[in-house]
Write a structure and sequence with these properties.
Length: 120
């Protein structure tokens, strides 16, 4: 399985999940089968607020799931329409923690917290 994790600094599996998918400067592509971690620059980092194109951000890379600290509803829709699972994680220090489902607009200082109710 290939996971995409937005981060600010590449510290491999000790990286801290970035607070918002669309504005993360970097993604880590973690391959759980090959046991590899590969950095990928966010190719859509400087998009207009609310206009994140997650597939452009991933530069055509194929992933099975994205683990986020926060993400807008449009990005969640775009990823899910492409068959990519979106899960929410804590952005607190301590490496990559367990995850739960993301619905959009969670954990982002630039988005409302009103939709902060994870669902599966």
């Amino acid at each position: 399985m290939k996971l995409c994790i937005p981060v600010e600094i590449n510290a491999a599996l000790n990286s801290i999940v970035y607070g918002h998918f669309g504005s993360a400067p970097l993604f880590l592509i973690v391959d759980s089968e090959a046991l590899t971690v590969e950095p990928l620059t966010n190719h859509d980092e400087h998009h207009v607020h609310g206009a994140c194109n997650p597939l452009k951000a991933l530069a055509g890379r194929t992933v099975d799931a994205v683990i986020v600290g926060g993400i807008g509803a449009g990005a969640v829709r775009g990823l899910r329409q492409s068959g990519i699972v979106v899960d929410r994680s804590s952005t607190q220090a301590g490496g990559l923690p367990a995850v739960g489902s993301a619905t959009g607009d969670e954990g982002s200082p630039s988005h409302s917290d009103s939709d902060n109710q994870p669902t599966r």
